[in-house]
Amino acid sequence: MIELKDISKTFQTKEGEVKAVNNVNLTVNSGEVYGIVGFSGAGKSTLVRMLNGLEMPTSGEVLIDGTRIDTLSGEKLRDQRKKIGMIFQHFNLLWSRTVLENIMFPMELSGISKAERVKKAQNLADLVGLGDRVHSYPAQLSGGQKQRVGIARALANDPDILISDEATSALDPQTTDEVLDLLEHINQQMNLTIIIITHEMHVIRRLADSVAVMEDGKLIEKGPVSTVFTDPQEELTKRFVNSEVDKSQTPDIKQITADLIKKYPQGKIVSLKFHGDQVKLPIVTEMIREFPNVTMSILEGSIHQIGDRQSAIGTLFVQLLGEPKDIEGALDFLNKMRVETKVINNG
Ligand SMILES: Nc1ncnc2c1ncn2[C@@H]1O[C@H](COP(=O)(O)OP(=O)(O)OP(=O)(O)O)[C@@H](O)[C@H]1O
Ligand SMILES: [Mg+2]
């Protein structure tokens, strides 16, 4: 278990003090995937660098499985660091070394024999799907393959914790998915705690159990992904959550609704947003039963599973035809069921 207690980090710069991290409290359970999101400069990297003593807090305590990290130094700190693997956006590989040598690198100081190191590195290369590329150099690999080397290297000392600092930010969507699959596999197989910093909410939705949102050094919101995605409290969290939902929405709603407005000028076009448990309820069926004179056509729709997969966000774009008072009644009914309705065209 990782515990950050009232952690602050202030840097002294020529321009004055920078409060990079400001009174942060955070607990990450063992085996959990914890996402940290926030804009550039929010303090995400500084926060996680205090986990392995790459930065020491100005105040507060960092505990890993009950051991204070922020007071360690020398060999004890070096030993502690081995328990934490890290992967980065720009891979940080050694360009003059082969895949195998890169993976072996962290083991060089750990006192195991060369034969043992080679064997272990080969196993890790197999694990990340690069078993047949061990003699290649990083420059000969694709971005996704380079990150796989980064992951294998991060696992070399059998860490308990893996920190991913924007590790998929430089990759295309397909490669990102492959790397996320690999991280999910590792999390489950090795019971590794993973902390994943990203500005991409789909990475959080896909992988994380819990998420924290950082702004100006502060943790402004945190909780299970299912809760934060379905019921975000803070403005910034809403922006992050919505940016993700909007992006994964159907391609061209504007075009589709424009076409439909042309085709059915008399219809009301409405978007219905479902949150959490509502997705599983027969709300639409009930609405149709209660308002039989309202005809509803579904134009577009999408449901996103989130977090523990017990929960979801869904949006339906529908066209409602019928008497205005019936339509009003139907919309009232939906609002009462806590479905967010938004009229896109009045017909
Ligand atoms: N060594 C340092 N010396 C001075 N200021 C620093 C140092 N490291 C970070 N900062 C400042 O602390 C703040 C937080 O930086 P940090 O790198 O933690 O942000 P971040 O959320 O990781 O951003 P990004 O998404 O761009 O990586 C920034 O204002 C940054 O300029
Ligand atoms: Mg950063």
UniProtKB/TrEMBL annotation:
Q: Does the keyword Nucleotide-binding apply?
A: yes
Q: Which SUPFAM superfamilies match?
A: ACT-like, P-loop containing nucleoside triphosphate hydrolases
Q: What start and end residues bound the annotated signal peptide? A: none
Instruction: Give the record's keywords alphabetically.
Output: Amino-acid transport, ATP-binding, Cell membrane, Membrane, Nucleotide-binding, Translocase, Transport
Gene3D superfamilies membership: 3.30.70.260, P-loop containing nucleotide triphosphate hydrolases
What would be an example GO MF term here?
A: ATP binding
Classification via PROSITE patterns: ABC_TRANSPORTER_1, ABC_TRANSPORTER_2
Task: Enumerate the InterPro entries for this protein.
Answer: AAA+_ATPase (IPR003593), ABC_transporter-like_ATP-bd (IPR003439), ABC_transporter-like_CS (IPR017871), ACT-like_dom_sf (IPR045865), MetN_ABC (IPR041701), MetN_ABC_transporter-like (IPR050086), NIL_domain (IPR018449), P-loop_NTPase (IPR027417)
Keyword Cell membrane listed? The answer is: yes
Pfam families found in the cross-reference section: ABC_tran, NIL
Residues annotated as domain ABC transporter: 2-241
Name under which the protein is recorded = Phosphate ABC transporter ATP-binding protein
State the organism of origin: Ligilactobacillus acidipiscis DSM 15836
